[in-house]
Amino acid sequence: MKFLSKIMLQAGRYFEKDGPLARWYPLYEAFDSFLFGSNQTTKIAPHIRDSIDLKRIMTTVLIALLPCTLMAMWNTGYQANMVIEAMALAGPDGWRGAIMSLVGYDPSSLLSNFLHGALYFLPIYIVTMAVGSFWEGVFNLVRGHEFSEAFLVTGLLFTLTLPATIPLWQVAVGVSFGLIFAKEVFGGVGRNFINPALASRAFLYFAYPAQMTGDMIWTAVDGVSGATALAQFAAAQPGQVMASINVTWAQTFLGTISGSMGETSTLACLVGAVILLITRIAPWRVMASTLLGAMICASFYYFSGSDINPLWAIPPHWHLVLGGFAFGLVFMATDPVSAAHTHPGQWMYGLLVGVLAIMIRVSNPAFPEGVMLAIILGNVFAPLFDYFVIQANIKRRMLRHG
Fold first, then answer.
1. Alpha-carbon gap, residue 158 to 165, rounded angstroms
2. Please, are residues 287 and 273 in contact by the beta-carbon 8 Å criterion?
3. What is the DSSP string of 59-86?
4. How far apart (Å, rounded) are the C-alpha atoms in residues 241 and 309?
5. Are the CB atoms for 162 and 178 separated by under 8 Å?
6. Which of 76, 112, 255, 329 is 20 to 30 Å from 97 at the Cα level?
């Protein structure tokens, strides 16, 4: 590695400000930083609170996302293999079928489940990273900015929020929209006011609802429906809500259910939360207040009751394991750029996100997954919360010293 480091150091002279390859410095810096790290610290939001470098932050988040990523691949294959075995169906056609013919479609086989799921997860992730890296490269070269590891996190978050059957061209369109219109137009890393991964997901949600909602998209087997737990609750008859669902709370907690690839397992999200809290990468106030807001709102609906909307009858503890609530709470709401930064602001921001997530989910069945929209709305209000907190602090100090 010392030999390679010496080569990179010598090559770096050509990429310096007055060097013949100065225009391409962002590409050189990205490769050098990837191999050897960086001794530079950030000077802008969101990492100005200490000397921690951006690479270490993003690496920690990627490690925290690893349980959800592994679960995404295993559960996608598990759900498909269960259907194939139970209905005596043939496996997928084409290259996926050729690969799976080597190990079969056994839902009790760890290898079979993991490999089958990876054949759907990895193409989506590769397209996300390829298209996203292209746009990052274009804007960084035009602006002369350094490449950031932040997109590694954004790309993985976006992939984990998608169904396994989404067309790859829509993946490319979605990540392009999120990066360009939610990040780069505002100046790039540290300047986006909403989470780019959520913006990409929201764009696909509204632009291509047939490929993002419904019963036919969650199981990676053609022509087979697999309703999510939330969809089963929404379709229940009043008074028969709990009897209408065919999964247990333990199954939803573990994540062995249909849903977006990386959002089904609350347990995997909790492992990630522990990592982020121990390393102090994610603000615990945002997690705690989001959880509190969700429980308050869910309890209100549950104890108020409704003769029309079956979602009102969902017990509060079920909301914690349904849909993408746990994933959004741990990895999306805590985004250090788009979340509130002041301590009181984080409490207000989290409460807003938690309340809105359940309110949208329960009150409007047309949007059964309210977490995504709640966090985006929270991102919009986060600067306002910080502004009021800062102004209150200024007034208090002026009165004290006036």
1. 14
2. yes
3. HHHHHHHHHHHHHHHHHHHHHHHHHHHH
4. 10
5. no
6. 255
Please tell me the distance from the alpha carbon of residue 251 to that of residue 355, in angstroms, as a whole number: 25
CA 259/CA 272 separation, integer angstroms: 19
pLDDT in tens, 147-172: 777 889 999 999 999 999 999 999 99
What's the whole-model pTM score? Answer: 0.87
CA distance 293 to 305: 19
Q: Are 245 and 232 in contact (CB under 8 A)?
A: yes
> Helices then strands (H, E): number in the chain?
16, 0
Q: Output the DSSP codes for 280-303.
A: T-S-HHHHHHHHHHHHHHHHHHHH
What digits encode the pLDDT tens for the residues 341-378?
A: 999 999 999 999 999 999 999 988 677 678 999 999 99
Q: Is 27 exposed, middle or buried (0-12, 13-18, 19+ CB in 10 A)?
A: middle
